[in-house]
Specification:
- This protein is α+β, with helices and mostly antiparallel strands and 125 residues long.
- The protein is 40% helix and 30% strand.
- α1 (3-18) packs antiparallel against α3 (90-115).
- The protein is rod-shaped, with a radius of gyration of 24 Å.
């Protein structure tokens, strides 16, 4: 394998890793209550904006009575202004796939076209 093929393989693995793009998506509290969301979806992580203006990121949240509970934190549900959950972003994922494919083409295929399949120079390398 030539040096360029190693680059292509590393870029491919990097691209596969990055295709799992995720973003925070706000949940409309008019449609679903924080308690319903936590109980039904059971997200691993949520971001909460409180009436006081503080923003917290909570791991493994649970609803106990009228409070949102996470390790070391207990928040009354009435104090929550906004709730966000992690979700996949199709647009970002598609963009990274396209960008990764271009990088792989430029670093893996173009040098082989110029230098030959075995990396032997044809006068231009």
């Amino acid at each position: 394998m030539t040096r360029y093929r190693y680059h292509a393989v590393l870029l491919l693995f990097g691209m596969l890793y990055l295709t799992a793009c995720q973003t925070w998506q706000s949940v409309s509290l008019d449609v679903i209550s924080p308690a319903q969301l936590i109980e039904e979806d059971q997200p691993n992580r949520v971001r909460v904006l409180l009436r006081s203006g503080n923003e917290l990121e909570l791991e493994n949240p649970l609803v106990e009575g009228d409070e949102l509970v996470a390790p070391g934190v207990s928040i009354p549900l009435a104090d929550i202004l906004r709730l966000e959950v992690r979700a996949s972003s199709g647009g970002r994922t598609a963009g990274l796939i396209v960008a990764g494919s271009v990088v792989i083409f430029v670093t893996g295929i173009v040098p082989n076209l110029i230098c030959g399949p075995e990396g032997t120079p044809n006068g231009r390398c």
